[in-house]
Amino acid sequence: MAPNANTTTAPSLFSAITLGGKEDPVKLKHRVALAPLTRVRTGDAGTPTDLVAQYYEQRATDGGLLITEATNISPTGRGYFGAPGIFNQNQIESWKPVTKAIHDKGGKVFVQLWHTGRVGHPLNQTQRTIASVLERDSHGQRQEPRRHS
Q1: DSSP state string for 95-108
Q2: Of 97, 108, 123, 128, which has the most beta carbons under 10 Å away?
Q3: Is there a single domain that holds both residue 54 and residue 98?
C-alpha cells in the first residue's frame, strides 16, 4: 500500500544534500542538477575549448551540480566526432579552465565517463571488438565482433 501523501513529506528541491561518504563528501546547496547533454564542440582532438568553459559557466549555480557531457575514456572508445575526451594529458589540461569556471561560481561538477563500445568507429579500433553475441548490430552498420580466445 502506498504511503498517504498527507503524512509523507519529501525534501524540498531547494534544500541542501550531501552526496558521497565520510572521506570526501560533495555538499550541494540544492537538489537541481544539470543532466549531461551531448555538445560535440571539442573537435577531433576532444579537447574542451573556451566555448565549452563558457557553456558550463553560464549554467553553474552556487552549490549546484553539473554533470558533463559524455566524455571519452579511451581513444578506442570514441564514437562521435566532437565529443570530449579525458584520456590524454592535453585533454586533462583543457578541462581545467572548465572546472575552474564552474568552481568560481560555487558549483560542483561530475564527469560522465563514456566508452561507446561497438558504436565506436572501426578506424579507432586496433582490433575488432569482442562481444557476447557474434553478429552485426541490428542496423548492420558496425563491424562484426571477433570471438574471444
Answers
A1: HHHHHHHHHHTT-E
A2: 108
A3: yes
Residue 14 Cα distances to 11, 37, 66, 104, 107, angstroms: 8, 22, 15, 21, 15
Report the distance separating Cα 47 and Cα 116, nearest Å: 18
pLDDT digits (tens, 9 = 90+) for 82-140: 999 999 999 999 999 999 999 999 999 999 999 988 777 666 766 655 555 555 556 55
Cell readout for 106 is 560555487
Does an H or E element contain 53, and which? helix 50-59
71 and 83 both lie in a single domain: yes
Same domain, yes or no: 84 and 128:
no
**Within 10 Å of residue 113's Cβ, how many Cβ atoms?**
13
β-pairing verdict for 17-19 and 65-72: unpaired
pTM, two decimal places:
0.77
* Domain span including residue 132: 119-149
Same domain for 41 and 109, yes or no, is yes
How would you classify the pairing of strands 26-28 and 17-19?
antiparallel
18-32 per-position pLDDT tens digit? 999 888 899 999 999
